[in-house]
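Illustration: Putative integrase catalytic domain-containing protein.
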Amino acid sequence: MGRGFKFVVTIRNISPSTALFEGQKPDVSSLKVWGCVATYYFPAQKRKGKQDIAAREALILEYPVSTTGYRVLDLISGRIVKSRYVKIREYSSSCSDKDVAISSHDSDDIVSMDAQQVGGAIGGQKRAMTSSLGELV
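Result:
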């Protein structure tokens, strides 16, 4: 199942059920724009020394629903990584890499995108997310 589809299902499951079954508005404060730019940090224990890289640019792919940590797409290596230490820049659509290759250990699919395509996709997702959340709250 695609990560974007999982995101949509998560939003759909959170949104109406809380309002309908519990009689209160859902807490959407933890929801972020899918595909937004973020920086994920390596814990000090996992770094080899002071000169080792402490953080990398990434895109948000999945939320922590039942576990802690976001799944992010590392823009340098193209790998999908799970990290608890993430700084999310939700309304920034700048990518530092010219080409982004998406690969995952979960699937054999590889997709290539350039930075403009990623930025355009992020902008569209941001507008769709903002309008759909505005209708719910």
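Reading the tokens back as a structure: The two ends are 29 Å apart (CA to CA).
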